[in-house]
Every structure is written in C-alpha cells, then in structure tokens.
Amino acid sequence: MPTNFTVVPVEDVKASGSGEATAEGSSKPISLGKIFRENDDDVDTLQGPDSGDESQKESTPFFDSDNDTKNYYDDKNMALYEEEMDSTPMVSSLLNKLSNYTNLFPGVCEHEETEDGCRRVTATVPQMGTFIGVFLPCLQNILGVILFLRLTWIVGTAGILGSFAIVFMCCVCTLLTAISMSAIATNGVVPAGGAYYMISRSLGPEFGGAVGLCFYLGTTFAGSLYILGTIEILLIYIVPTATVFKGHDGDAMPNNMRIYGTCCLALMALVVFVGVKYVNKLALVFLSCVILSIMATYAGVIRTIIEPPEFNVCLLGNRSLKNENFEVCAKKEVIKNTTITTELWNHFCNSKHLNATCDDYFTLNELTEIQAIPGLLSGVIKDNLWGEYAPAGMTIEKKNQSSVPTQEPTTDRDDIYLFNDINTYFTLLVGIYFPSVTGIMAGSNRSGDLRDAKRSIPIGTILAILTTSFIYISCVVLFGACIEGVVLRDKFGYSVKKNPVIGILAWPSPWVIVIGSFFSCSGAGLQSLTGAPRLLQAIARDGIVPFLRYHVSNKIHRSTKHSGSLHKDQANGEPTWALLLTVGICEIGILIASLDAVAPILSMFFLMCYLFVNLACAIQTLLRTPNWRPRFRFYHWTLSFLGMSLCLSLMFICSWYYALVAIVIAGCIYKYIEYRGAVKEWGDGIRGLSLNAARYALIRLEESPLHTKNWRPQILVMCKLDSDLAVKHPRLLSFTTQLKAGKGLTIVSTVLEGTFMTREDEAKTAEQNLKAAMVAERTKGFSHAVVSSNLRDGFSILIQSAGLGGMKHNTVLMAWPVTWRQAQNSTATRNFIETVRETTAANQALLVAKNIDSFPGNQQRLEGGTIDVWWIVHDGGLLMLLPFLLSQHKVWRKCKMRVFTVAQLNDNSIQMKKDLQMFIYHLRLDAKVEVVEMHDSDISAFTYEKTLRMEQRTEMLKQMQLSRTEREREVRTLDKSFAQLIHDRNTASHSTSDREAGASPERVHMTWTKEKLLNEKNRQRESIGQVKDMFNMKPNQSNVRRMHTAVKLNEVVVKKSRDSQLVLLNMPGPPKNMKGDANYMEFLEALMEGLDRVLLVRGGGREVITIYS
After folding, report:
1. Which of 28, 341, 377, 1009 could link 9 by a cystine bridge, Cβ 3.0 to 4.6 Å?
2. Where is the composition biased (Low complexity) (predicted)?
3. How many CA atoms lie within 13 A of 922 on its CB side?
4. What is the four-CA torsion angle of 215, 221, 223, 224, rounded to 10 degrees?
C-alpha cells in the first residue's frame, strides 16, 4: 500500500530559535525545500503561519536553496549535476523525506493534551479511515434538530409530494456540491479550514475571505439554531414548568427562549473554553443518540402495522384541540348513571350545569376522537399527499370532516384550539428544511487526520449524503403514511399530550426521541461553537482580512508573551478572541428566539458557500490548468454548474430578501479584502480565468483596427531615475493619473544603461521603485525596467515592443530635458530628438511636459483658471481631446477650456472663428474660441542675434566634440602601437631564449615622426582658423525664419496664456537633417519661453476625435 502524506503549513523559526506551535486552522502550504532543512531531531523549531503574513505570496518554489547541503554530493557519482546541488536536491533524498513526512505538526500539543499534562514529541501518522473519519462526522452534522422538531410539520403542511420535492432539491444540491468538493479536496492537500481553504485557493483570497466569513456566520448561526432547538425541547417536553414568563400570550415563550438560550450559550461557551476534549470525546455519544432515535422511529413504523400506538386526537367539528388539560373528549359523560359535564364543557360554557350558555361553535358541533397514528396500512397516505398551507392564526382543521361554521368573533376560549403560528408557504418550508442537509464539509475539515484523504473524503461524504437522503425521503413517506394530517400540522404536539409528533410514532416510548434529540441538539451546538472560532482563526491567520488579522490573530500571539490564564489557554491553540466573537454573533440568533426564523438565515450562508464550491470546481475544470489533477474522476463541469445554479435558485426560493442581504454582505467583504487585504498569490482559478479572458480580448482586439470613437491615449511613460534608482519626476505619474483616470493602458518604464547580467538586481529594484511610485501617485498600470547597452537603444526597444497585441501604447509621455544645455555632450539632446523621430515613425503620439515638477498633484484642486489649446496645425485632434480628458479629473474639473488658432494675412479671421466654434460644437466640447492674427513682419535684430548665438554655440560644441574625438582616436592609436610592440618583443624573446639567455633586454623608444608633427601643427592651425571663422559667420536664413516664427508665436502665447493653468502647443517636427538637432532644441526653448506649465503635443498621424456618434 502506498504511503500517504499531507504537507502542513509551517514556517521557519526566527533567529532566536524559539517557535510557536501552529494552531489548527492554518492554511499556508509549506515549501518542500524546507523539509530538507528540517532536522529529524529538531521538533520544536516551528513557527505559526502568522509570521509569514507580511510576505506577498505563498511559498511557491518547489525547492529552496540550502547551504547546509553544499558539500553533500562531494565524491559522489553525480558530478555532472553538482552545480545544481545548491538549490535542487537529488530525487532519492526528496522521496525519502516525503515518505517520512506527516501532516501533524511536530512539537504541537493540542489543548486537550495540554490539560492532561502530556507533551507530544514525535509526530504520529494519522490512522482515521473513511467510516470513522468522514462518514460518521458527516452523519452527525447532517442529522439533527430539523429531523426531530420540524420534519413532521413540514410533511403535514407541504404534503408528501411537496415535502418530497423539498427534500429532493436540497439533497441533490448537497450531492452535486459534494461531487465538486471531492474533486477539489483530492486535487492536493486540504489543511484545516475545509471549505474556506478550498474556495480561497481555487477562487482567490477575495472570494475565499468573503465566502469563508459567510461560512463562519452560517456555522455560528447554526449554533444558535441548535441551542434554540435544545431550549425548545427542554421547555416544552422535558420541564414545561420551568418557564420564567407564564401565560399563553405570544411574547411569553420567546422571552423564555431568550433567557434560557443565553444561559445555555454561556454554559456551552464555558465548556468549549475549558474542556474541548470533552466535546470531542462526547461526539460519539451524541451520534449514538441520533442513531438510536432514528432506529426507534423505524421500529415504531413497523409496530404500527401490528398495533398502532394508543394516542388519540380530539376534534370539535373539524378543529383540532389541545388535549393537555382534559382527559375525556366529550361534552358530557355518564358516571354511575349520572350525567355530568366534562372539562371541555367547563371551558366553552359559563357554568358546569347542563343548561349553561355555551359557545355557539361548541353547541353546533360534536366532539369526535380519532386515532393520531392510524398506521402504515390505514390508507391515510391518500389524505396527506397534498399540502395544507394556511396563514398565521388560522385553526388547524381536518379535511373531509363535517362542521357547522359560525360567525362568532374570536374569544378567550379559543386558546384551546390549535392555530398556525406562522404563515406557511412552500418557499418558507424550503428555507426551514435546508439546514438539515448541511454538514457535508465535516469530512473535508478533518482531512489532516485521515489515513488516505483522497480516497476517504469522496467516498465517506457521498455515502453519508446518500444515507441521510434515504433517511429523510423514507421519513417523509412513512410520516405521511402513518400519522394523521392534523397531528402532522401540530408543530409542538399539543394535540397529543405535549409529546413530539415523531415521539408518539417511536417505539418503545416518546422519551427516546425527547432525550435523543435533546442530546443531539446540545452536541451539535457544542460542535458549532468549537468549529466556528477555529474557522475564523484560520481566516485571520491567512492575513487577508486586516480587521481579523489585528484583532483576532495578533492578540493571540501577543498574549502568548505574557503569563497568566490567558496565556495558558491561547498559547495552546485556543482561539479565545474568536470564541468571544462567535458567542456574540450566536447571541444575536438566540435573541431572535425562533427556530423557524433563524433557519433561513443560516441557509443563505451555507448555500452561498456551496455555490462557490461548485463555481470553483467548474472554473478549474474549464480552465484545464496543469495543476488541476484530482484523483476523484467522477465529476464534470456541467454538474458543477447545475449545482451552482441550484444553490442560487434555492437562495432566492428560501427568502429573496435574505439572499440579497447575504450577497451584499459577501460583496462588501470582497471589496474590503480587495482594497485593504494582503496581496496573496495562491494560483487561484480567478487568476487563470482573468488570463484566459485577457488572452481572448487581446486576440479579438487584433482582429480589426481600432475605430476613432474607441481611441483613447494608451500611454507609455518614460521615467528618469536618480542615483538611488528612485523616480526623479513623480509628478509625471500624477499627470498620467489625471489624464487617464484609471482607464486604458498605462506602462511606466525606465531604461538602465549596462548589461542585464551585471545590473539584474538594479533592474528589479528600479521596477519595484516604479511600482511604489505608481501606488503613491495612484497610477493604475504596469511597470517595466529595461537594461540596454545605451539609453537610445533602450528607448527604441520600449517604443517598439512595449505592450502586447492589441493592448499596445499609442502615446509616449516624457519630461522635457531641462539640462540639455548643461550636458557635457549631446547625448541627452540626441536621445530626445531620436525619441521624437521614432514615435513619429511608429505613428505614435508624443506628449512632452515642461516644468513637470510644477504640475498639480493628485491631492490639489485648481480653483478655476483655464487650459489653453494653441491649435497651429491639425495632426489628428489630440490637442482637443486632452483638455476634455483632464477636465474629467477632480484636479482640473473647475478649469475652463480655451482654443486659440492663428490666422495669417490672407485668412478671414471672422469666418475662421465661426467655423471653429461650429467645429467645437460638433465635437460636443465646452470651450471658448479665439482667433489670433499674426501678420508677416520684419525679422527683428533680437531674432537675428538669437539665431546667430545659437549657430555659434552649435559650431563651438561641434568643434569641442571633434577635438575630443580626435584625442580619443590618437590615444587608441598609441595604445594599439604599444600593444603591438610588446607582443612582437615577447614573441622574439621566447624564440631566442635558449641562445640568448644572458643578453640584455631590448630598449623601446616612443618618438614623434616628422609626418605626425606636421599633421598636428596643421590641425592646430585649422582649429584656430575655424574659431576665427565662427566669430565672423552669418546665420543660416532658414534658421532665422524658424527662430522668427518661434519668437513671434511665443510672444502671442505669453500675452494670451501667461496666467493659464496649462498651455497645450503643437510640437514642431524635428529636422530631417540631423545636423540641425541642436538648433531644433533652441527653437523649442524659444517657443516655450516665459510659460510655466507647457505640454507639447505631437499627433500620431491618425484622427483621434470625431464629430459623429
């Protein structure tokens, strides 16, 4: 037989070597590499999973590096793989460790063991099989309070056919859920946490946390249900005289339930707090009570064939009466030839005399006594096939029984009749019944204690569901075939001497059912109060819910550092704070004081949990992820979807408003975890579903070109880093956030100079810094750091390859290189201009922000002002679109848009303004329009002089660059000559070493030749001549005209837009001749001079805004 093992959630110890035992309920899997670092004798070096909460994802590598095994494979015959031995162990060692590994935590002592004074030192292999470990726990959790207290009433109200439909729907729902759960549970190890662990690891932490908390709330309200059932049995059937509030009014019994329920809850919480071992040891006793009660019921059914029980029901007309206060079902009786009145006569009449005035209905109708349990062969099954739904306050009446109705109003004498206490309808009965089929997760919750969990969980759970389904369905049929309808509809058994209806059917005595159901409900309540806190603790220790992490899990760990009773309890794994929270929530259910009102509440939470179990299985099956390899083969995604649909339908069938409340609660928890929870990477199905959806969407985007109406800026942000690899201009990211508002694609990138092998760590650090800056500036998108041999190539790589498929950037955003004049070489200028050229060649838009550090941050609010658009040339309409996008953000929302355009001498400025206003109107933009006239004028001396200084500076920088280049070339030539000389000398010395060992070494002379001297003098003479020519040069006329345009346009822009919040300008294209690159930068500087915030915009060569809908 193969050895079975289970990996448990443990962490490495701290440096001090002290460890804390991991409490049951942890759900973080261990990295297998840690198994190899464990010492077989070191059993106390484990730490709880809470220590790893700060990590952003689980321990996912299959192996971890281990320095202790560095020399393990020395002198072995596997030298070919010796380089890998530091990080990957040999298979033989791996299998040996895994075969000896156990799911039990070495050094961990359970709470009950600590109470006995023992200390576990070595781990033992679990020995629980399918029957003890799965089947019986599921049987105990499924069979319970509803079977004994409400099933007969459901059969009487809904009829045999309606009850069969209810039971069948609920059992099919749990069976389909069990199939999905079996597939998930056999697809790897399921530690404590059960359904929470399966859902969270299959659907992600958000769904897992939301559904886990809903499952916790369901388990907690189940405790309320069982406690209310216990108190109902106690006060109605066992000690009816113990009520605190007397009377028959509607508030007396609920108040008694609240008082005794609260006391019972406190007692059970105390038992769980100080004696969990007794709860576990008594579980078999409680299960025995359930089984004995069911056997007594079947025995009573068989007995009805031979001799029906002697229980009779008294009817007045067709109305059923409470017979707890009278013995004779008659108006008068003859005793010793004397006619006397009975207790019923005294109740309905104003005196004991025969001539007394009596109730009209009592006078007109006769009293009849019928058998409460006619028996299996009596044919009563025909009368019980169909339901008898009725509103609250209506008397329980027998069908086909003659009666004389009266118009008399209700009096105080009517308290002897049996009434419906609540409105009855089919969907209500579904909600009340469904808790009786919950409990199918009991086996998966014990997966760590099973000998073969992958075999036991499916077989035990499905077998338990089939067994309990047979019990419920057979009980529905047998109850309807044996018991009279008016008795079935008697919820509390008042018509049969205050005995439970199922009790009068049982053999040998109703007390078998009373005692059995009492202990069954008590045990189930204790089990709920034991399991719910541990489930909450498992969620808290995963760290996905910040509130629980700091108020439940952390308090446990802090308290272990101190002494006292609190330390003694919590240090041994008792989730005391979780228990207190559970008791508080459970008290809410008890204050409701109605088993029928609490049952639909917990039905919602359990149905939601089962829904997501089915969803998890369906998603994993459809995605066909490589890790989805369950050993349980009898599942299909259609069954999972059917189970999910059935769960959702049952939620709204039970109670549509409870269903909406449960969905809202789960949704709020989901969003809370999404925004505030810890980031976890568990390889969940939702992540795989997102990847598949993204792949599908990207392929669809590639199928057809993007329409103008769908165009939006997908921005590639070029960031510059400082010496510490931090973002130099974070306001660039702020501006991106304001421009994008989280819509579309944003890629924040940077380039590091060097090789990836040498700067790998710096690249990772840079990418992390980019992500941190994006979070700080609320920029939603992706970060990417590229390492290239030079910055120019890095920028080119990003422009060409950033993005994927249809989700590629169409706009590049960068900051204006402020220090381009101060640079020692022209690298910064060349990089910037080449970036402009490449974006133009790639048909991408370009945005260049000047004085980016003065742009408003995301927290600022501009109180007015304008965004001025200077529309000089039309290159796609991006200039019009950008102000609209900015105005959608709260920073720029109060700014008005103004559009300026330039009219030449031959243009009709008035008509231009009208046309522009109409164009803006058709674009559905709210903007003020203005046409600025710029007539031809003579070139000023200032412009001429500015152009001359520009060209002189450019020429001087060129000469300096040439001189530097020649010096570098000369040095390289000398280095090559010297290296060649040394090589020749070494070659000659080696060849003659034997013959000329005593010869003196050859001397090397480095001298200037005559040719080199003449060349150097000519070069210096040319340099002096070029400097003289530079001061006598005249500026190029083309440059003068360009400078003139820049200066004149700048004057107009400064005059009109000096006080505006932002100025958008058309960015002129770079010169085709690369010799004019430096002049191009001067033109741009002249164009933007005197303006604070400027955004240069260059379109991508396509229309991005349209007047059509």
Report:
1. 28
2. 15-27
3. 10
4. 180
Nearest to 27 by CA among 45, 63, 52, 61: 52
Distance in angstroms (rounded) separating the CA atoms of residues 771 and 783: 6
Most confident of 151-165, 378-392, 917-931: 151-165
Residue 484 makes CB contacts below 8 A (sequence gap 6+) with 313, 370, 371, 372, 373, 374, 380, 398
Instruction: Reply yes or no on whether the pLDDT at 131 is more than 60.
Output: yes
Please report the pLDDT score of residue 653 as a whole number: 92
- For residue 1008, what pLDDT is reported? 52
Task: Compute φ and ψ for 522, nearest 5 degrees.
Answer: -65, -45
Whether the Cβ atoms of residue 717 and residue 736 lie closer than 8 Å to each other: yes
Residue 1009's Cβ-count burial label (10 Å; 0-12, 13-18, 19+) is exposed
Closest CA to 1060 of 933, 923, 924, 899: 899
Interval 370-418: pLDDT, tens? 999 999 988 899 999 999 999 998 899 988 888 888 766 555 566 788 8
Q: How far is CA 130 from CA 7, 451, 459, in A?
A: 20, 8, 7
Contacts of 846 (CB under 8 A, 6+ apart): 811, 812, 814, 835, 836, 839, 840, 1067, 1096, 1097, 1098, 1100
In this structure, are strands 338-341 and 367-371 parallel, antiparallel, or unpaired? Answer: unpaired
716 beta partners: 747, 812
For 523, phi then psi, to 5°, come to -65, -40
Q: How far is CA 1054 from CA 736, 848, 1050, 1057, 1086, in A?
A: 26, 19, 6, 5, 11
Question: What H or E segment, with its residue span, contains residue 1062?
Answer: strand 1062-1066
Q: Which stretches of 874-976 are assigned E, i.e. beta strand?
A: 896-903, 927-933
Q: Is the pLDDT of residue 105 over 70?
A: no
On whether the pTM is more than 0.85, the answer is no
Q: Which two tokens stand for residue 107?
A: 């050094």
* Beta-sheet strands, E only, within 552-620: none
Sheet containing 811-815: give its strands across.
Answer: 782-788, 746-753, 715-718, 811-815, 845-850, 1094-1098, 1062-1066, 866-871, 896-903, 927-933
Flag whether pLDDT at 102 surpasses 60. no
Q: Could you read off the pLDDT of 885-896 as tens digits, one per residue?
A: 999 899 999 999
| Mean pLDDT comparison of 81-90, 201-210, 1031-1040, highest-scoring range | 201-210
Give the chain's end-to-end CA distance (angstroms, integer): 71
Give, in order, the Cα–Cα distances in Å from 578 to each of 102, 246, 270.
28, 36, 14
Amino acid at 594: S
Residue 1094 pairs in a beta bridge with: 850, 1063
Inter-residue contact 855 to 1093 (CB < 8 Å): yes
Mean pLDDT across 674-686: 69
C-alpha 814/C-alpha 756 separation (Å) is: 24
pLDDT of 769-810, one tens digit each? 999 999 999 899 999 999 999 998 999 999 998 888 778 899
Length of the chain: 1109
Give the strand pairing for 866-871 and 1062-1066. Answer: parallel
Longest dimension (CA), the chain: 164
Q: Are strands 782-788 and 811-815 parallel, antiparallel or unpaired?
A: unpaired
Query: Which of 218, 220, 240 shows the shortest CA–CA distance to 231?
Result: 240
Place of tokens 């057809």: 704
**Cα–Cα distance for residue pair 380/304, rounded to 1 Å:** 13
HEC sequence for 81-130: HHHHCCCCCCHHHHHHHHHCCCCCCCCCCCHHHHHCCCCCCCCCCCCECH
Q: What mean pLDDT is reported for the chain?
A: 79
CA atoms within 13 A on the CB side of 249: 6
Which amino acid does the sequence have at 368?
Answer: T
